[in-house]
Amino acid sequence: MNRQRSVIGFIVAGVIALLVIAIASFYWFFAKNPANLIASTRQPGAAIFVSKLSPAMVSLLANPDRLQALDREEELSKLKTSLFAKSGIDYKQDIQPWLGDEITLAIATLDIDRDLENGQQPGYLLALATKQPEKSREFVELFFSKRALGGANLAVEQYKGVKLISDNSQPEKDLLSGAVVGEGFVLFANDPKVLRDAINNVQAPDLNLTSSPEYQKATKELPKGGLAVAFLNLPVVAKWQGLELSEQLYNSQIISLALNPKGLLAETTFLTASEIVPPSAPLSKPVGALQYIPASAGLAISGSNLSNLGDSDLTKLWRQATATIYGSGEDVVSRLAKPLADVQKRWNINLPEDIFSWVQGEYAIALLPEKEQKTPHWIFVVEKSESVEKGVTRLDAIASSNGLSISPLTIDQQKISAWTELTTATKKSDVKEGESFSIETKVRGLHTSLGNYEIFTSDLETMDEILTIKNNSIIDNPNFKDSIAAIPLPNQGYIYLDWTKSQNLLERQVPILKLAEILGKPFFNNLRSLTLSSYGTDTRSLKGGVFFKLHNS
Q1: CA torsion 336→339→343→349, rounded to 10°?
Q2: Average pLDDT over residues 174-195
Q3: How far apart are CA 508 and CA 521, in angstroms?
Q4: Residue 353 burial (C-beta neighbours within 10 Å; 0-12, 13-18, 19+)
Q5: What pLDDT shows up at residue 30?
Q6: DSSP 54
Q7: H/E element holding 145?
Q8: Average pLDDT for 110-126
Q9: Residue 75 in contact with residue 525, Cβ under 8 Å?
Q10: Nearest by Cα to 253 from 236, 278, 239
Q11: HSE-up of residue 396 (Cα within 13 Å, Cβ side)
Q12: What digits encode the pLDDT tens for the residues 227-249?
């Protein structure tokens, strides 16, 4: 029985799209009318219907109609229309009068009938808060009566004082069940068993999500003013994906989205029973290495101490997350860091062993995308130390072993060491028939010392830009300043991505991103940059945030 074709699946997809569109557009409304949008200070009330074994739950804690004023491209209106078009329901007349301030969507169970022989059949639960229970009951009756007029066979039952209405159609047709529970929520599911389980979860509190110690701990990490919240039970998510993780450090994750005068801040906390080992000591201000990163950078990564990165819990989290999402962390890492992978291959080096191992102080890494070429220019800045001096000597030796020459150069009286390669080129002779040969020198990389930092670049043009940077570094960029100002201090450093400069590069490296852009068009059209950081002092949780800087904010 393939229940993925049900109407609830269509509604689930629509609700997800509604959340994306609504949240992505908050910035405009907030900037124009900050007093009109009040952030929620509560937790999702529908968690009482969700099993503590649920892999995922996401909630919008605001009424979508409060966002209607920001609907400049009428994306919300179009979605509402298309979402209910097949059912004959008019949103404004039938739903708007009773819809409250919460929409929660959960994967209630991984397999409705728990029968492995017929495959996995996830159960979906959609909970809509109601402010007028009687009107919402009228809506449920109307909704299913219109399905009956369309040929559906309806089944009505009383279950523990709650009236359940189900479309008892043939298996190959749409399946849907609905009910109004108490005075607070309208529930929809893709099977009546999912609704019965939801009611059981309320009446036996030890079964629902609110009784889970993991959930209780996670919700304590929620910041005030969150507009949307998501909770993930990571081991169950991995099971849902059919994965057996070799390394399972984190048990749960909670995500909260909140407004900021300059954009949106998504904060997330990963929880574990183990002691967390931070990759480096927290920083109370941006690292000085950023002063040598040009404002034209599309990607900038900064922090301190790369020497223990491979064994840090942040790296373990990355492996667990990518394995859970993609099935393998290796492919996605190589795609996202392809320029660095190209450097490794060309130089025959291992970045963690040959470079990261001797970076114990401040560092900054940047990519400068150019439209004319697929491979961006790169910059690597590291704070000087005895280990760095040895590291530079080692890189010079590796360059020599790869057939490169160490050539001294001078740019604006600045002494530079260049790794160069001699190549031959042929051209037609102007004197006689045949070909003549010329020798060309190609620069494969450069490094120099400025102040208390050693600077490496991919090419002469980038090095020249650094030497003449003056007041045009990334730390002078207002967009960068606004972005890091939204991230709490102290922290572990920043990953800053200028979306407008890096979009083409990222789309080439991660093709699935194009699909995400289509689904979240209003968001990506308005995205200017995003900044990631990790922070927090709890030894049993890893906390971080992503700040989305948006145009006109």
Answers
A1: -10
A2: 89
A3: 18
A4: exposed
A5: 41
A6: -
A7: helix 133-149
A8: 80
A9: no
A10: 236
A11: 14
A12: 888 898 888 887 777 766 656 66
C-beta neighbour count of 163 within 10 angstroms: 15
> Tokens 């480096």 sit at which residue?
280
DSSP-derived secondary structure for 508-538: HH-THHHHHHHHTHHHHHHEEEEEEEEE---
What distance in Å separates the CA atoms of residue 59 and residue 95, rounded to the nearest whole number?
18
Residue whose pair of structure tokens reads 């629902």 in the numeric block: 208
E strand or H helix at 330 = helix 329-336
Could you tell me which of 255, 216, 250, 221 has the C-alpha nearest to residue 236? 250
**How far is 341 from 489, CA to CA, in rounded Å?**
32
- For 121, list phi and psi in degrees, rounded to 5: -125, 85
On the 0-12 / 13-18 / 19+ scale of CB atoms within 10 A, 413 is exposed
The single residue listed with the structure tokens 């003056």 is: 470
Residue 349: burial class (beta carbons within 10 Å; 0-12, 13-18, 19+): middle
327 touches 243 (CB < 8 A): yes
Asked whether the beta carbons of 154 and 119 are under 8 A apart, the reply is no
Contact 204, 49 (CB under 8 A): no
Burial class (CB in 10 A: 0-12, 13-18, 19+), 158: exposed
Structure tokens at 153: 């066979």
Residues 256 and 59: their CA atoms lie apart, in Å, by: 10
CA distance 426 to 440: 10
Question: Span 497-508, mean pLDDT?
Answer: 75
- Rounded to the nearest 10°, the torsion over CA 375, 312, 282, 550 is 40
